[in-house]
Amino acid sequence: MIEALQDLYARYALGLDGADFDLVARCFAADATYEVDGVYSARGKDAIMDRIRSRWHAGRTHLTCNTLFDREDGGVIRGRATFAVLDEHAAVLACGEYDDRVVLGPEGEWVFASRRISYRATGDDDGRGGDMDKLGLGVDEVLTTTRAVRKRLDFDRPVELGVIRECLEVALQAPSGSNKQSWHFVVVRDEQRRARVAEVYRKAFADYEASPLNSGRLFADDAERHAAQGKVFGSAAYLAQHLHRVPCLLVPVAAGRADQLTSAHRQANYWGGIIPAVWSFMLAARERGLGTSWTTMHLRYEQEVADILEIPYADYTQAALVPVAYTLGTDFRPGPRQPLDDVLHLNRW
Questions:
Q1: Which end of the chain is more exposed for a tag (fewer CB within 10 A), N or C?
Q2: Backbone dihedral region of 66: left (phi > 0), alpha (psi from -120 to 50 degrees) or beta?
Q3: Rounded CA gap, 204 and 296, in Å?
Q4: Across residues 210-233, what is the average pLDDT?
Q5: CB neighbours (10 Å) of residue 57?
Q6: Closest Cα partner for 115 from 203, 31, 240, 217?
Q7: Which helix (H) or strand (E) holds 28?
Q8: What 3-state DSSP class applies to 257?
Q9: For the segment 235-281, what is each residue's pLDDT rounded down to a tens digit?
């Protein structure tokens, strides 16, 4: 029996390595469940295979080891194993654990009734390093094509904690006034907390929609810009409607209360200590195939979000809320902008 169970794990890995999706499909019961890091789940073989096909990458090798099998009631076997995913150069892209329930299928083969995948790390063992998949963009291309992505976010693909940590390691190299580094970053992947934050966000968006500052109402005397603003508003409304589906939210936080700063100098110093770091995060995310969008909509109800995320409101100020997800395609172009000469001043105004 042990050999037959080990064959199941081998079929799964070899099927993934060789893009033999029929072989992979044989590994699952018709009504199987599939969960990744508590962020994504699918039920039924067809839904599971759709997911696996959408995430498949050529040149990867899946290794499985440390398998342990225990009998449970009803002829169910609990299988646990460690896995690693290697790239074409044999560098470790990710590692983690499988926690499975295995049953005999109608053809007499062992199949997964459920599979739960938990990533222990991506890159180095502590999840901090190693190169995640990168697009290989040049510096200027990253700077000019990091767009506010809303309608092209992949809501169904989990964002690994390891890639978020990579982007934050880049962000920590940003400058800050007097090198205080008084920043914190709240990464929200929990589904229930994301849903609660999204409810507050939608309440704030309803206020915004009714206000004269609604982006769709701006530049009414300029037909071309007004049309562009209508698209901006439609995109923002789409994000508000679907924010709960975004797999990861980043809330950057700065020490102190910004609303207690009374001078422009102190305000500039304060925001200059957090905004460059967040933008660096967004640039790093772009290079790794992730889409982001800078939004401050929820700050109308900042304290409510602070309560949801257990941020000490009296001592810390939220700077933004950044949705983070892999993008549907990676082909982004520079956006339309005013001519440089309209805003450039040499030596004097």
A1: C
A2: left
A3: 10
A4: 70
A5: 12
A6: 31
A7: strand 28-36
A8: coil
A9: 899 999 999 999 999 999 999 999 999 999 999 999 999 999 999 99
Give the side-chain half-sphere CA count within 13 A for 115.
29
User: Which among 109, 104, 110, 96 has a CA at the least distance from the CA of 36?
Assistant: 96
Q: In angstroms, rounded to a whole number, what is the distance separating the alpha carbons of residues 150 and 40?
A: 19
Q: At what angle do helices 302-309 and 191-210 cross, to 10 degrees?
A: 180
All domains of the chain in start order, with CATH: 2-122 (3.10.450.50), 139-342 (3.40.109.10)
If you search the block for the tokens 């449970």, which residue do you land on?
72
**Rounded alpha-carbon distances, angstroms, from residue 290 to 83, 96, 164:** 24, 22, 10
Q: What is the DSSP letter of 327?
A: B
Q: CB–CB of 171/277 below 8 Å? A: yes
Strand partners, 118: 97
Across the range 49-77, mean pLDDT stands at 88
Q: What is the largest CA-CA distance in the chain?
A: 82
Contacts of 115 (CB under 8 A, 6+ apart): 28, 32, 33, 34, 35, 98, 99, 100
- Count H helices, E strands: the chain? 10, 11
The DSSP 8-state label assigned to residue 336 in this structure reads P
Is-contact 145 333, C-beta < 8 A?
Answer: yes
Hey, what are 180's tokens?
Answer: 């205080």
Within 8 A by CB and 6+ apart from 258, the residues are 267, 270, 271, 317
**184 strand-pairing partners:** 253
Which of 50, 49, 55, 62 has the alpha carbon at shortest distance from 93? 62
Q: Which two tokens stand for residue 63?
A: 């290794």
